[in-house]
Amino acid sequence: MTERRGNPAVRVRLLEGAARLLAEEGPSALTLRRVATEADTSTMAVYTHFGSMADLADAVVAEGFARLGALLAKVPRTDDAITDLGGLGRAYLANARQNPHLYAVMFGTASLGRYRPQTTDERERGRYTFDEIVEASRRAVEQGRLKPAEPRAIASQLWTAVHGYVTLDVGGYFGDDGVEHVLVPMFVSLLSGLGADPAAALASIKTLATTRAQR
Q: What are the tens digits of pLDDT across the range 77-91?
């Protein structure tokens, strides 16, 4: 099969196929032939688009964070920073549901095996994705919705809590009402501990309960 050099559709199929193999079968399944088969293309296409299997593995992680960053950047910025934090949580969940295999590889749930353990630089690349959360946390403090604290520390706590829920959600551990009965109450409890008024926080993030319908 002949592929046009630089075909974006082929590149996406290779990335998603590699992520699927890593998440479902582990790093031993990430072979040149298996990736090409998953992507319905030739083995040469891997070299055309990525140069090597190691570079493909690196690109899978980068693609995952790029998609997450794009969704976070689309969250509207409002006059209510708590609403914005809820929207970012909604986008984080939506990304994981839309890209479950990439999500598993991004955060190490699916091992990359011999190809490439995550490095400090790559983890930093992931952290930079969450600048939107840090900024919303800063505004929440400025607006008096949260008690004074370092915005990155606030964002890290919120990220950790939401990430835990999202990981279990993608794994199928919550039903259709998980967002309403688990994620939202957890988020409100954490915000309350950070100084938010519980009722006001719930009012600000109530739209988070619509996430399941967006799946």
A: 999 999 999 999 999
